[in-house]
Design goal:
By secondary structure, the protein is of the alpha/beta class. It is built from ten helices and five strands; from the N terminus they run H-H-H-H-H-H-E-H-E-E-H-E-H-E-H. The radius of gyration is 21 Å and the shape is elongated.
Length: 222
């Protein structure tokens, strides 16, 4: 929970901020904490807790606790799903002085832009514009590339990734096709779903882009 964001959005007073901080600190025990206990621990009344529930748009205390704990359980499931990538991903993002180039073409482009803006808000240097000079050996120690590609077969994208790979620029890819050149040239290929060539049909379900955002968010906050 981002207390600053919630405070601004819902115009929380100091006591309400304190209660939100309490829930955040006790997220693992929330299911066993009743409203009277929460009120007692925060030196307030149950009516104050109820008012906070209503302010957040919940029908009551149980509804709010269910929402908070079910969201946590869902996040835990995703963390398990992408656990094998976590250590290396965290290592790449450990140094905020690095420059991140996030790139995708077609439907991958808005996903790349989302990642770039998310990284920027977290204090990283991130951009979606590709300058080939950044992939030269002069900058390879300062640059990390993040690629989003469903098929991994787009010629223009393959060319960019091949150049980065040859110059030893670390590459993180979110990709569905393990048989693609991009997957093979990536330092950390993160496999999303299963590749299906028929998914290029606009009338065919393709969950790759939504799952990519889920994977990215899950890896950002282990």
């Amino acid at each position: 929970m981002n207390i600053v964001h919630l405070s601004e959005k819902y115009e929380l007073n100091d006591l309400e901020k304190q209660i939100v901080a309490y829930m955040q600190e006790n997220i693992n025990e929330l299911k066993s904490i009743g409203i009277r206990q929460m009120a007692k621990d925060n030196y307030t009344s149950t009516s104050t807790i109820y008012k906070l529930c209503n302010k957040f748009g919940f029908e009551g205390y149980s509804d709010m606790i269910y929402h908070l704990t079910s969201t946590k359980d869902t996040n835990t499931n995703f963390q398990h799903q992408y656990h094998e990538y976590q250590t290396q991903f965290t290592t790449f993002l450990k140094d905020q002085s690095k420059r991140f180039i996030v790139f995708g073409l077609g439907f991958s482009s808005p996903i790349a832009e989302y990642m770039q803006q998310r990284l920027t808000l977290l204090g990283y240097q991130a951009m979606c514009v590709v300058h080939m000079e950044m992939f030269s050996q002069l900058f390879n120690k300062d640059t990390i590339m993040i690629v989003v590609s469903y098929s991994g077969k787009t010629p223009r994208l393959n060319e960019i990734v091949e150049t980065a790979h040859q110059n030893h620029v670390p590459i993180i890819s979110f990709i569905a096709n393990p048989d693609s050149p991009i997957y093979k040239n990536s330092s950390l290929p993160i496999l999303i779903g299963q590749y299906d060539s028929f998914s290029h049909d606009l009338n065919h379900v393709n969950t790759f882009y939504g799952e990519t955002i889920i994977a990215f968010e899950t890896l950002l906050f282990p």
